[in-house]
Write the C-alpha coordinates for this entry.
Amino acid sequence: MINVGEIRKGVGIELDGKIFRVLEYSHIKMGRGGAQARLKLLDLRSGAIFDRTFSASERFARIRVDRHPVQFLYSDGDFYHFMDTQNFEQRAVPGAILGDAVNYLKDELQLELSYYGEEPIGVELPLNVVLRVEETDPGFKGDTATGGTKPARTETGLMVNVPLFVTTGDLIRVDTRSGGYIERA
Protein backbone atom coordinates (compact mmCIF):
# COMPACT_ATOMS: atom_id res chain seq x y z
CA MET A 1 0.00 0.00 0.00
CA ILE A 2 1.20 3.50 -0.79
CA ASN A 3 -0.18 6.79 0.41
CA VAL A 4 -0.89 9.90 -1.64
CA GLY A 5 2.49 11.48 -0.73
CA GLU A 6 4.39 8.58 -2.34
CA ILE A 7 2.53 8.72 -5.66
CA ARG A 8 4.53 10.00 -8.61
CA LYS A 9 4.04 10.20 -12.37
CA GLY A 10 4.17 6.72 -13.94
CA VAL A 11 3.22 4.77 -10.80
CA GLY A 12 0.61 2.04 -11.22
CA ILE A 13 -2.24 1.79 -8.70
CA GLU A 14 -5.37 -0.29 -8.19
CA LEU A 15 -8.59 1.55 -7.42
CA ASP A 16 -12.13 0.11 -7.29
CA GLY A 17 -10.96 -3.13 -8.91
CA LYS A 18 -9.43 -1.32 -11.90
CA ILE A 19 -5.78 -0.70 -12.67
CA PHE A 20 -4.45 2.77 -13.48
CA ARG A 21 -1.21 4.57 -14.33
CA VAL A 22 -0.69 8.07 -12.92
CA LEU A 23 -0.14 10.52 -15.78
CA GLU A 24 -0.03 13.72 -13.72
CA TYR A 25 0.12 14.48 -10.01
CA SER A 26 -0.44 17.76 -8.18
CA HIS A 27 -0.60 18.42 -4.44
CA ILE A 28 -3.12 21.04 -3.29
CA LYS A 29 -3.07 22.63 0.19
CA MET A 30 -6.20 24.54 1.04
CA GLY A 31 -6.09 27.54 3.43
CA ARG A 32 -8.52 25.80 5.75
CA GLY A 33 -8.93 22.08 5.69
CA GLY A 34 -6.75 19.16 4.70
CA ALA A 35 -4.45 18.72 1.78
CA GLN A 36 -5.64 17.07 -1.41
CA ALA A 37 -4.02 15.41 -4.38
CA ARG A 38 -5.32 15.78 -7.91
CA LEU A 39 -4.40 12.87 -10.17
CA LYS A 40 -4.79 12.39 -13.90
CA LEU A 41 -5.27 8.63 -14.33
CA LEU A 42 -5.08 6.31 -17.33
CA ASP A 43 -7.22 3.16 -17.14
CA LEU A 44 -4.78 0.52 -18.41
CA ARG A 45 -7.52 -1.82 -19.63
CA SER A 46 -9.85 0.59 -21.42
CA GLY A 47 -7.46 3.46 -22.22
CA ALA A 48 -9.79 6.06 -20.66
CA ILE A 49 -8.16 9.14 -19.09
CA PHE A 50 -9.79 11.13 -16.31
CA ASP A 51 -9.04 13.43 -13.36
CA ARG A 52 -9.76 12.49 -9.77
CA THR A 53 -9.15 14.25 -6.44
CA PHE A 54 -8.22 12.40 -3.23
CA SER A 55 -7.61 13.46 0.35
CA ALA A 56 -4.00 13.29 1.55
CA SER A 57 -4.81 10.44 3.96
CA GLU A 58 -5.95 7.92 1.31
CA ARG A 59 -3.94 4.80 0.56
CA PHE A 60 -3.77 2.76 -2.65
CA ALA A 61 -2.66 -0.71 -3.65
CA ARG A 62 0.43 -0.46 -5.88
CA ILE A 63 0.38 -2.71 -8.93
CA ARG A 64 3.34 -4.42 -10.46
CA VAL A 65 3.66 -4.01 -14.19
CA ASP A 66 6.15 -6.34 -15.87
CA ARG A 67 7.74 -5.42 -19.19
CA HIS A 68 8.98 -8.01 -21.66
CA PRO A 69 11.03 -7.21 -24.77
CA VAL A 70 9.11 -8.39 -27.83
CA GLN A 71 9.28 -8.25 -31.60
CA PHE A 72 6.21 -7.44 -33.70
CA LEU A 73 5.48 -10.25 -36.16
CA TYR A 74 2.19 -9.62 -37.97
CA SER A 75 -1.45 -8.60 -37.73
CA ASP A 76 -4.47 -10.71 -38.65
CA GLY A 77 -7.33 -8.28 -38.37
CA ASP A 78 -8.20 -7.59 -34.74
CA PHE A 79 -5.15 -9.31 -33.22
CA TYR A 80 -1.48 -8.31 -33.30
CA HIS A 81 1.11 -11.04 -32.84
CA PHE A 82 4.35 -10.54 -30.91
CA MET A 83 7.29 -12.83 -30.11
CA ASP A 84 9.01 -12.62 -26.73
CA THR A 85 12.71 -12.18 -27.57
CA GLN A 86 13.84 -13.99 -24.39
CA ASN A 87 11.90 -17.27 -24.59
CA PHE A 88 10.53 -17.06 -28.19
CA GLU A 89 6.89 -17.53 -27.11
CA GLN A 90 4.28 -15.90 -29.33
CA ARG A 91 1.46 -13.78 -27.91
CA ALA A 92 -1.66 -12.43 -29.66
CA VAL A 93 -2.82 -9.06 -28.31
CA PRO A 94 -6.18 -7.42 -29.23
CA GLY A 95 -5.85 -4.14 -31.11
CA ALA A 96 -8.06 -2.37 -28.56
CA ILE A 97 -5.33 -2.79 -25.92
CA LEU A 98 -2.67 -1.30 -28.21
CA GLY A 99 -4.63 1.86 -29.09
CA ASP A 100 -2.71 4.32 -31.30
CA ALA A 101 0.44 2.19 -31.13
CA VAL A 102 -0.87 0.15 -34.09
CA ASN A 103 0.01 3.13 -36.34
CA TYR A 104 3.72 2.55 -35.68
CA LEU A 105 3.89 -1.27 -35.83
CA LYS A 106 5.84 -2.70 -38.72
CA ASP A 107 7.47 -6.10 -39.20
CA GLU A 108 10.37 -6.90 -36.85
CA LEU A 109 9.93 -3.73 -34.73
CA GLN A 110 11.51 -4.20 -31.28
CA LEU A 111 9.41 -2.87 -28.36
CA GLU A 112 8.24 -3.76 -24.85
CA LEU A 113 4.92 -5.40 -23.98
CA SER A 114 3.53 -4.50 -20.53
CA TYR A 115 1.80 -7.17 -18.42
CA TYR A 116 -0.26 -7.05 -15.25
CA GLY A 117 0.10 -10.62 -14.06
CA GLU A 118 -0.50 -12.65 -17.23
CA GLU A 119 -2.72 -10.01 -18.86
CA PRO A 120 -1.17 -7.77 -21.55
CA ILE A 121 -2.13 -4.14 -20.89
CA GLY A 122 -0.12 -2.11 -23.41
CA VAL A 123 3.13 -1.53 -25.28
CA GLU A 124 6.08 0.80 -24.80
CA LEU A 125 7.17 1.99 -28.24
CA PRO A 126 10.66 3.25 -29.05
CA LEU A 127 10.91 7.07 -29.12
CA ASN A 128 10.91 7.09 -32.92
CA VAL A 129 10.40 4.70 -35.81
CA VAL A 130 11.42 4.73 -39.46
CA LEU A 131 8.46 4.43 -41.87
CA ARG A 132 8.22 4.46 -45.66
CA VAL A 133 6.05 7.14 -47.30
CA GLU A 134 3.45 5.31 -49.42
CA GLU A 135 1.56 8.29 -50.79
CA THR A 136 2.07 12.05 -50.87
CA ASP A 137 1.75 14.93 -53.32
CA PRO A 138 4.73 15.30 -55.64
CA GLY A 139 7.51 17.73 -54.75
CA PHE A 140 8.45 20.55 -57.10
CA LYS A 141 11.72 22.28 -57.88
CA GLY A 142 12.40 24.94 -55.28
CA ASP A 143 10.77 23.07 -52.37
CA THR A 144 13.03 23.57 -49.37
CA ALA A 145 13.28 22.36 -45.80
CA THR A 146 12.11 25.72 -44.45
CA GLY A 147 8.95 25.83 -46.56
CA GLY A 148 5.50 24.49 -45.77
CA THR A 149 4.26 20.98 -45.15
CA LYS A 150 2.02 18.49 -46.88
CA PRO A 151 0.22 15.34 -45.69
CA ALA A 152 1.78 11.94 -46.32
CA ARG A 153 0.46 8.41 -45.71
CA THR A 154 3.01 5.92 -44.37
CA GLU A 155 3.20 2.15 -44.87
CA THR A 156 1.27 1.61 -41.61
CA GLY A 157 -1.55 4.00 -42.60
CA LEU A 158 -0.38 6.83 -40.31
CA MET A 159 -0.92 10.33 -41.72
CA VAL A 160 2.04 12.67 -41.06
CA ASN A 161 2.68 16.26 -42.13
CA VAL A 162 6.05 16.27 -43.92
CA PRO A 163 8.16 18.98 -45.58
CA LEU A 164 7.52 19.66 -49.25
CA PHE A 165 10.73 17.93 -50.43
CA VAL A 166 9.66 14.47 -49.13
CA THR A 167 8.42 12.22 -51.94
CA THR A 168 6.68 8.85 -52.25
CA GLY A 169 9.08 6.03 -51.34
CA ASP A 170 11.23 8.09 -48.94
CA LEU A 171 12.01 6.77 -45.47
CA ILE A 172 11.12 9.19 -42.67
CA ARG A 173 11.69 9.13 -38.92
CA VAL A 174 8.47 9.70 -36.92
CA ASP A 175 8.18 10.59 -33.21
CA THR A 176 5.94 7.97 -31.56
CA ARG A 177 4.90 10.31 -28.72
CA SER A 178 3.50 13.08 -30.93
CA GLY A 179 3.13 11.40 -34.33
CA GLY A 180 5.17 14.17 -35.93
CA TYR A 181 7.86 14.14 -38.60
CA ILE A 182 11.44 14.33 -37.27
CA GLU A 183 13.72 13.88 -40.30
CA ARG A 184 14.33 11.95 -43.47
CA ALA A 185 16.03 8.64 -42.67
Summary: The chain has one helix and 16 strands. The domain at 128-184 is CATH 2.40.50.140 (OB fold (Dihydrolipoamide Acetyltransferase, E2P)). Residues 95-98 form the longest helix (4 residues). The mean pLDDT is 85.
